[in-house]
Amino acid sequence: MGLRGLLTQDAVLGVFGLTPEDIPSSFLTFTQILTDTAFSFLPALVCWSTFRNFGGSPVIGIVLGLMLVSPSLPSSYDVGSGVAEPLEFFGFIRVAGYQGSVLPAFVTGIITAKFEKWLRKHIPDAIDLIVTPFITLLVGIVLALFAIGPVLHYVENGVLFVVENILFLPMGIGGLLYGCFGQLLGIFGIHHILNFLEISMLAQDGWNFTVSE
Q1: Whether 33 and 106 share a structural domain
Q2: In which domain, by residue range, is 144 found?
Q3: Of 44, 85, 126, 143, which residue has the fewest beta carbons closer than 10 angstroms?
Q4: Structure letter (DSSP) for residue 74
Q5: Torsions phi, psi of 84, nearest 5?
Q6: Cβ contacts of residue 102 below 8 Å, gap of 6+?
Q7: Do residues 97 and 75 touch, judged by C-beta distance below 8 A?
């Protein structure tokens, strides 16, 4: 993504006597497929990795993650820009896709992977192949869309908002505070959340503000 951004800058194109209008739209689409696909399906990758590390079936994890960005759900980007409206359940739960989100997929993956492990101990082997994946996915998607997802999505956006605003404080104060903040998280062993925030920044803005700082 960084390379594409660099090569499509007016100054760089000007070296070769080109302008942005000279780049074929089909070529730009190709580069978007190459660089943006992983971020478009980021929850699927997060769920897959989480299931794999917490003892669940990775294939169930990736299916659960794909459900979070299903085309049947309004895209979070479209909802955020006002192009689409979220689905409404029970009159107060508003549901949209989780494109670019990490924490909802991560926590859902942990809980559902542990639930699958518990389930396999109680489901007879004769019906395990059919019953366990179905119940696991059903419980996982219900938790993700109606409980874990909405709460953590707001938490993730709130933390991301705070960190981004800290980074933009003048005279290097933002970098100082962020450095202290990151070290404190490291002491308590929860510094990995910053990795998720960096991924979210790349997915939502195409830029990692922590690196730029």
Answers
A1: no
A2: 42-212
A3: 126
A4: P
A5: -135, 160
A6: 42, 43, 46, 156, 196, 199, 200, 203
A7: yes
